[in-house]
Amino acid sequence: MATETQEAVGEGLADATGVAAHQAGEAAGMPQLDLSTFPNQIFWLVVSLIVIYLVLSRVALPRIGAILAERAGTITNDIAAAEDLKARAADAEAAYDKALADARSEAQRIAGEARADIQADLDAAIAQADADIAERTAESEKAIAEIRAGALEAVNTVARDTASELVAALGGTPDADAIGAAVDTRIKG
Amino acid sequence: MATEAHGAEQGGGLSFHPMDQFIVKPLFGDGPIAWYTPTNVTLWMALTILAVIALLVLSTSRRAIVPSRGQSIAEMAYGFVYKMVEDVTGKDGIKYFPYIMTLFMFIVCANFLGLLPASFTTTSHIAVTAVMGFGVFFAVTILGFIKNGTKFLGLFWVSSAPLALRPVLAIIELISYFVRPVSHSIRLAGNMMAGHAVLKVFAGFAQVTAIAPIAVLGVTAIYGLEVLVAFIQAYVFTILTCVYLRDALHPAH
Lengths: 189, 253
Description:
- The structure holds two protein chains of two kinds.
- By secondary structure, chain A is mostly helical.
- Chain A has four helices and no strands.
- In chain A, helix 1 crosses helix 2.
- The longest helix of chain A has 132 residues.
- Chain B has one domain.
- In chain B, helix 3 packs across helix 7, helix 4 runs antiparallel to helix 7 and helix 6 packs antiparallel against helix 7.
- The chains are: A mainly alpha, B mainly alpha.
């Protein structure tokens, strides 16, 4: 738009102002090769580059570098902490296993002791009982022997009495010695 | 002559002014352009600075361990250029990282701002890119002599080549060395200018109803390409800077 108006001015007035003619000529060729704008572009470029360099080197790059380093540090620390926790968990598991094994062997030991105690008690009780039984048996045998002796005596007495009575009843005179000898003979078989 | 050319174009019913977008104009009034005059160059370079600050400073102000979107972009840009410097130049090139980052951020922001409609692309001007290109060239050459003394000339003396070939190669190497800043700067300015001019030409064709759909499609396609070019040219400029810097630090082939 601007160039068109300048162009019109250029066409209308043969002696256009220097600026207008200059602009029109510029529009036709390559503006890149218009040397008159070079100092301006170079000046502002240098200013821009310096500003960007200062911003980057003073603020942006140290900050981003710090962020990246901090992140790397955090990740490394987290991994180390995780390793540490893992090792601790393994330790805890080992301790648990050890405690379990200890408890099991202790229990086995206690059970064995108890079994031995009970066995000893049992043995003592059995021995006592055996002794009691033997004593009672002896007593019983003695009683039986007494009873048996008593019975033989009684048989002997009854046999003598009976024999004396029989002799008296048959009209004889019982002779105690003869009857005793006969009874003894018969009882012995 | 110029006015005649314009008249002929307008007579044809089409008005193409693909180069008008590159004209440097004063921001206030209509005067001659002195070196200090605030022009559209000033405006768009200031916007570039603001873009750089917004990208790298404002977005990282929270210094979050878990980054926000903006902070991620800043970190990616940092990591991208840092890794480039480290990989291409080597560990001893890291101390020049802020300078290279400055160049990269300026070029990439200026390129992308230039893609806004009705904007002015500062990097499409050879004056701008040549200052950067020659700046890199002189900085690298002076640095090479400071760091390596006369051994820096070993860059031109290809010791792995047969002795008879070495003088010839030295001349070729010397020429290629001095062409570096020219190609370095013209590559960027040329790419930016050509892309924007082609966009304008396609936009001009959109004035004709019959081919307008094709022209609009063309504008869209070229714009997509230009987005790519805007980044790639910034990348290329930066990585070549790193390569030249490596040559200065380690001149032996």
